[in-house]
Amino acid sequence: MKLRSYARGDWVEGSGKATDLIHAVTGEKIAEATSEGLDFNGMLEYGRTVGGPKLRAMTFHERARMLKEMAKHLLERKDRFYKLSEATGATKPDSWVDIEGGIGTFFAYASRGRREFPDERFYIDGGVEPLSKDNTFVGRHLCVPLEGVAVHINAFNFPCWGMLEKLAPTFLAGMPAIVKPATITSYVTEGMVRTMIDSGILPEGALQLIVGSTGDLLDHVGGQDVVTFTGSATTGRKLKSGRAIIDNAVRFNMEADSLNFSMLGPESKPGTQEFDLFVKEVVREMTSKAGQKCTAIRRTLVPAPMVDDVIKAIGKRLDGVKVGDPQVEGIRMGPLVGKSQVTEVRGRVEEIRRVAELVYGDPSKFDVAAGDRDKGAFFPPTLLYNDSPLTSTQPHDVEAFGPVSTVMPYKSIDEAIALAKMGRGSLVGSLFTSDDEVARDVVLGVSSHHGRLLLINKDSAKASTGHGSPLPGLVHGGPGRAGGGEELGGARSTLHYMQRTALQGSPTTLTRISRDWIKGAAQPSDRVHPFRKYFDELEIGETLITHRRTITEADIVNFAGISGDHFYAHMDDIAAKESIFEKRVAHGYFVLSAAAGLFVDPAPGPVLANYGLDNLRFTKPVYVGDTIQARLTCKQKTEKETRPGMIPQGVVAWDVEVTNQNAEPVAVYTILTLVRRHTKPGDSDASDAPPDHVADNPQAPDTTGAERPVPVKPS
Ligand code: NDP
């Protein structure tokens, strides 16, 4: 079967000489691949002109919903991907990481997209930068999607996850993509892309696929395109220095091979839980995916006196790992992806062996428990030992991309830190210690050289996601040798596909653009109290200035009685006199409560519930006799999706400033309220039933009741 690429809206068969794709276990040919004859420049143009505009017309929330729908669609059809994955030599757990781990990343970005991004086509990054004394000129950062195409070049080891972990932030950002999987396992990616295209969930032009080489594609990338690469450092460097990439300053994210370390803490002697956990993790990382993971443990750092114990314990565990055809019951490790990788890994082991001895396994002499050793691309778990790691370069330099790790001794924490850094930049490191001081020293010592650090003790082990697993919410990538790139990390990676633009202008202009009220911007007021208005009727910047209230000693005493807070600064004249306040002050929480009393309109209306409070600061003390007043400004509105049985609603963020009689702010914060909105087409089964958290909250206001206009003071 000749695999097809998906280019410019069609499945296209390449011409010319094709590459044979071989089953990793049986050695049989299963497909062939070539991309010769594809119009690569045309594909880029198609993505830019067809897919890009459609994705950019959607909001973050719409794109997030698309990711979720796609994730569900793929999950329902996962069996077909597991079937395809068998030919790569993956065990069931290996395939699970690739397939369901990848789909899980889509789910994770779908939910982050709705939680962390606005229902808009742009994203505001960070706060307001004051640029003038009188606050008439301010700055803000705005991010919009790039108008090019994201070209994703992936490695062979994760044909699904490698694609999906890059597509999730790309699509969420609003950028189309061209995916180019490693040819050797491209049949798995092709199967998944076909399912994605057939689903009709993606807008046309959002996703294209190249099976085979990229031809002259990279000669045509421009300043609005992004290229990401996962694979060997050699290829990565070559692509990064491509003419068009340099000339057009194309964003290039590289994730290359890396020699990750795992370290056993000096106090974690044999018999401790941390010792056992360490041994288990090293073996797991050596054998899962037959060690073909960019995050696998290549360097195993052990306190010198424990070297023999560790080697013995690892060996004992490896004895239980049966190598063979993963389709056979009881097989724990499959073959490498192909014969070429066997030759490659064997060569690398030989290089390391110049300075290290073989202490477990032998690549030239091993058995397989199931399958044909000569036909399949089998390789045994191989443990090496190097006794002079400070002066040997090979164990820190040579990556054997298979079930291979080198044990190295260290004599002090400083020495272990120096060894960890000899990898010259890694994706991940891990430390197994019960001593948090050791953890602190190692973290501060090695962080500069690592993208992720896993710290395990008996308390965290049970829930640990493991040394080798990148997670959607945490950054994946490392400096130096690891490529210097960064992927995932939640919202961070979405911004890699967007342009951040610094805006400068008046607060009112920037408020109108961003739909997020900035201090100093216009504050229109209305005769109708804002709590009497539906979500749709509220205007950004709309402001209520309340009446005033003078704080009395009775207020303080009553609040202390109700809350039980008799802190000396509120209740003890002598202590308060000696304190930084010099006299008794009102409770900060009383000031908040009193402010709510000033701005709340009490009658039932469209405000459903108080949802939370952000960024609270008490900026000045409030004393007996002070007179406070509150300003409530509609800062931001975020519509909520209407689920069946839920009242149509949105979250309104209000900027609140409480001032004293001298117009000095005493408290500033943002409150969040849930506000009913008018029903519109597309709201599913909107009913009058309160949302769950309101039903659960006895303090939540009633949602029935008539509304009445209330006169307010002009601002
Ligand atoms: P490569 O660097 O050879 O290939 C990675 C990707 O780049 C593949 O899709 C490959 O496509 C593509 N590619 C290669 N040459 C070009 C080119 N000139 N123009 C455009 N694309 C190109 O890595 P492999 O996947 O073959 O793995 C080799 C080594 O890389 C491993 O042994 C390991 O050391 C390291 N590696 C690192 C990983 C990581 O995540 N950091 C993951 C996997 C591997 P094609 O297959 O068609 O050649």
Structure summary:
With 715 residues, this protein is α/β, with parallel strands linked by helices. The structure holds NADPH dihydro-nicotinamide-adenine-dinucleotide phosphate.
Notes on the protein architecture:
Mean pLDDT is about 95; it is low at about 685-715. It contains 21 helices and 26 strands. The protein has about 725 residues and is of the alpha/beta class. Helix content is about 30%, strand content about 25%. The strands form seven sheets. A seven-stranded mixed sheet has the order 14-15-16-13-12-17-18, sandwiched between helices. It has a five-stranded parallel sheet with strand order 9-8-7-10-11, sandwiched between helices. The protein is globular, with a radius of gyration of 30 Å. The structure holds NADPH dihydro-nicotinamide-adenine-dinucleotide phosphate (NDP). NADPH dihydro-nicotinamide-adenine-dinucleotide phosphate binds next to helix 7.
Please render the helix and strand layout as text.
Elements: E1 4-7, E2 10-13, E3 19-22, E4 29-33, H1 40-56, H2 60-76, H3 78-85, H4 92-116, E5 123-130, E6 138-145, E7 150-153, H5 161-173, E8 177-180, H6 186-199, E9 207-209, E10 226-230, H7 233-240, H8 243-247, E11 251-255, E12 260-264, H9 273-287, E13 297-303, H10 307-319, H11 339-353, E14 357-360, E15 382-385, H12 394-397, E16 404-410, H13 413-421, E17 426-432, H14 436-446, E18 450-456, E19 475-476, E20 487-488, H15 491-495, E21 498-505, H16 507-514, E22 543-550, H17 553-563, H18 568-571, H19 573-578, H20 588-599, E23 607-618, E24 627-639, E25 649-659, E26 665-676, H21 692-695
Helix pairs in contact: 2-4, 2-5, 3-4, 3-6, 4-5, 9-10, 13-14
The structure holds NADPH dihydro-nicotinamide-adenine-dinucleotide phosphate.
NADPH dihydro-nicotinamide-adenine-dinucleotide phosphate is lined by residues 153-157, 180, 182-184, 213-214, 230-232, 235, 239, 255-257, 294, 344, 399, 401.
